[in-house]
Each structure stands twice: as C-alpha cells, then as structure tokens.
Amino acid sequence: MTVLSLNKRLSYSRQQLFNLVADVENYPSFVPGILKTKVIPLDAFQFQSEVFFGNRIFQERYTCLVKLDPFHQIHTDSIQGPFQHLKSQWSFYDAQGGEQTDVQFKIDFIFKNKFIQRLAQPFFQDLPKVMMQAFEEQAKKLYGI
Hints:
Mean pLDDT: 93
Number of strands: 7
Radius of gyration: 15 Å
Strand order of the largest sheet: 1-7-6-5-4-3-2
Helix content: 25-40%
CATH superfamily: START domain
Low-confidence stretches: none
C-alpha cells in the first residue's frame, strides 16, 4: 500500500477551492493524466465518477464514490477498476482570517496487479505535487491572483 500526502497554503477561499476540486467533470481540461470523466449524481452530497486516466502507453479507468462535506472535505473511494484499494481526501482549512486556505491532499492506493503497481509507482510518487499544481494553476485562471 502506498500513502502519499501534500499540504499547501493557497490564496483562495475554502469555497473556491472546494468547488474547483469537486468539479470532476472538468478535470480532463486541466489535470495531467485525466483523459475523460463521467459523473453520475446520487444525492446533494455524493456522486459516482468514472475516471479514465493514463497516457499514450498506459490507459485505465476506475469508478469511485465521491462524498462531499461542503467547503471542508472531499472523500473518494474506488469501487471498481484496477485498484485493490484507492482512497483520496482533500481537506480545506481557513488560514489568514479566511483570505487563504490550507489545503491537504492525501491518497492511499494499491493496484490489484503487482506489475502495474511497480510500473506506476514512479508516476504516483509525484501525484500529490502534480495534482496540487494543476488545481493551483486552474484557480489562478478562474479566480485570478
């Protein structure tokens, strides 16, 4: 099992960052390695998402359950696909009187196939950094600063 995390303070509100991360349908336009997504709403605070990821050599898809705790946390659990186990969590905390937000991204995963686990390990080691950078750049485009 691989557990990775990253914390960063960003100059956006919790609401802005929460909404950006919760908008899974737009991931293919700015998150590296996300090729396509499909969202199926379940209720106001959860949805299923089918995510197609990879590159020219390796492509895979998985389905996950996404649970929203508005403006505080987003939890993701894989329910189908190449992972034996995949959980991720985004957490958002007010900083500087609400003018900034401390963001924490955690991911915990293991592939079903040990060969794919070894092959994907180098890419996934940088995943928290790549994800945080993608969301920070998208926030700049949408909200300025």
